[in-house]
Amino acid sequence: MKDHKGRNIFIFALIIVFTIACGFVAVMGVGEKHQGAAKNITLGLDLAGGVSITYEAVEEDPSDEDMADTVYKLQQRVQSYSTEAQVYQQGSDRISVEIPGFYDAEEALSSLGAPGSLMFAEIGSTTEEDSEEEISTFNIVCTGDQVTDAQVYSGQDSFGKTEYSVKINFNAEGTEAFKEATERNIGNPIYIIYDGNIISSPTVRTAITGGEAFIEGDFTFQEASVLATSIRLGTLNLELKDISSNVVGAQLGEEAVGTSLKAGIIGIALLIVLLIFLYRIMGVAAGIALILYVLATLLFINALDITLTLPGIAGVILAIGMAVDGNVIIFSRIREEIGNGASVRAAVDAGFKKALSAIIDGNVTTLIAAVVLYFMGIGTIRGFAQTLALGIILSMVTALVVTRAILKAFISMGLTDEKYYGRAKERKPIKFVENRLKYFIISGVLIAAGAVVMLVNSGNGNKALNYGLDFTGGTSYNITFDEHIDVTSEEGQQLRSILEGAIGTSDIQLQNVTGTDEIVIKTQELDTEKRQALMEAITDNYSIQEDLTSQDTISGVISSEMSRAAVVSVVVALILMLIYIFIRFRDWRMSVCSIVPLVHDVLMVLMVYAVTRISVGNTFIACMLTIVGYSINATIVIFDRIRENLKSMGDKDLKTVVNTSITQTLSRSVFTSLTTFIMVFVLFIMGVTSIREFTLPLMAGIICGAYSSVCIAGTLWHLMKGKKAEE
What we know:
Elements: H1 2-28, E1 50-57, H2 64-77, E2 86-90, E3 94-100, H3 105-112, E4 118-128, E5 134-143, E6 147-156, E7 162-170, H4 172-183, E8 191-194, E9 197-200, E10 212-219, H5 221-233, E11 240-248, H6 254-279, H7 281-303, H8 310-339, H9 344-376, H10 380-412, H11 436-459, H12 469-472, E12 474-480, H13 490-503, E13 508-512, E14 518-524, H14 528-541, E15 550-554, H15 560-585, H16 588-612, H17 618-648, H18 654-664, H19 666-686, H20 689-721
Antiparallel strand pairs: 1-3, 1-11, 2-3, 4-5, 4-8, 6-7, 7-10, 8-9, 12-14, 12-15, 13-14
Helix pairs in contact: 1-7, 1-10, 6-7, 6-19, 7-8, 7-10, 8-9, 8-10, 8-17, 8-19, 9-10, 9-15, 9-17, 11-16, 13-14, 15-16, 15-17, 16-17, 16-20, 17-18, 17-20, 18-20, 19-20
């Protein structure tokens, strides 16, 4: 026992030291470059700005289909630089690419290259000219359309020196074509031709039959990266030329970053205070684990070079909620065990054991969604999925390992009196099942009200939802002022207010062009009257260089393909979650009743968007995905308790089992929702306008998620299951 006591206290000391070390690295960093410091996290265009490149189609009057296809392909390919990169059409023949967190426009152009045509070719027939010089022609082996990926691959030579190569993967058609070409060209080169220029000519050493090829040579990392990028860009429908490149400022500004950071710190502090108030010494353990979780999340976001944007922050918020949820589930179980007469030591062991299945099931279902969204989603959806997946893994480690180790140490220190932990009180089961019709009616009325509001909006000539610039596109104004105005400063906020007053919408994005007095103003498509009002508002209040003023139409950042990818990825994720829940619970009804609350919550939040007319923009998808992840986790906890009680309460009728299960998990549902709500509410109070428009529906989603899990999921399952506990 003494050995265990000393070991537990030693592990606790290590956790404290490790937490302090993580805090030091997150704040100060390591070395002269301050590696690992939170300030070095790559921020998206909305938070920090980046490089903006404008391409123009070489072909005159390109078709809408070719432009849309090229935008979509560029969006997919530019993600290798950042999952948060944005691509949109500008005018009839131009495409803008914005790469966040990168500020060297020339290097970006060099790395990205001029997206054009790519082909792999072999030497064909040879002719002899009058000068007796031999001229060779090429036979095309395959094209860039048949390349699925190309990445830099690093390894070590026999002397331990790092060497770089380029790894290429082909689709099925390309695999077969490349196999045949390499079989007949052993000892000869295969030429990689990009925009008519030979960019590489590796010699074939052996037939390549598996659809995976390596280009080796004396490459530097930069050379290998440029080659991989050129191959990965593949063949586009249009040949493009770059006509401008600028470094642009943040869309939301430093104020948004600063207030979000302060709000995050305050929110976490309040959360820890609440945990201590509710769970006493266990809250202290959870607070330490939560601090370590947050610091570890920052370090991993930095190490994995994840670009952080508002949707990414949403993923972090959801993961924090799940980290707290894991602890709340465990603590509720510990109190139940103490209430049943177990000692504190035994209660802690039993609490973690009984909470394990609920924590794993809840986290795995959400992790499934994150993985699917990452591999099938595009743009900010992938950024959200990255931070969410990272957060889920870290939250499970902190809840199941770190919190447990800290509680074990507290017990070893002699803190074994139950007054430090609390005792669950015996509660009479609340009649949830008996009141299910009321819950269904309330939900139905609210959802119907939302539908009516959307119909009224449409009938009044407005769209059902207030689709923002990210969805609909609009107009981009490039205006050069006579003096520099920092859009993130108070003067910049004043400019924003003037523009909002002139055109009657807050859906405006302002960006500085670094090194100039130019400001890019993006807003929704305006009619002639409002366009005139905007320009008059600017000229009445500022001096501008009219000969350097231009405007152009721009497409939405969220293209139809991106929206379709989001819908498809969510559907696939839901199907996989259904399968997982069925495997774990062996009941198809629980699978269905886990998904119904998700649909319920999405419809409820749509109602909030419809009523408040909050702009439906880039953060809309992240908001909905956050609500889906939050809701499914809460429902799983209730179903896990129902599954357990079906075994332990076999002599009870099904109604009693369901009511008891929901009642037993009610404190968890309330406390988890409350702690997550506090985090988001602080962001809402302290944030700038765009952050408030993001957090308001998120708060509504948290409330709806708690309501649907408690009042809809279990009672609906009882309705589908029938009156008998066994079937």
